Amino acid sequence: MAEESDLEKTEAPSPRRLEQAREEGQVPQSRELSTFLVTVTGAAALLLLGNWMATRIAGVVRNGFAFDRATVFDHVLMLDVLNRMLSGALLTLMPLFFILLIAAVAAPVLLGGLVFAPKALGPNFGRMNPIQGLGRMFSVHGLAEMVKAILKSLVVGGVASLVLWMNKDRLFDLMVEPLEVGMADFSSIVAFAALLIVLSLGLLALMDVPFQLWQYQKKLRMTKEEVKRENKEQEGDPMVKGRIRALQREMARRRMMAEVPKADVVVTNPTHFSVALRYDAERMGAPVVVAKGRGELALKIREIAAEHGVPMLEAPPLARALYAHCELEASIPAALYTAVAEVMAYVYQLDAWIKQGGLPPVVPAALPVPAGMDPGVPGE
Question: Which residue spans traverse the membrane (predicted)?
Answer without folding.
Answer: 33-54, 89-117, 146-166, 186-211
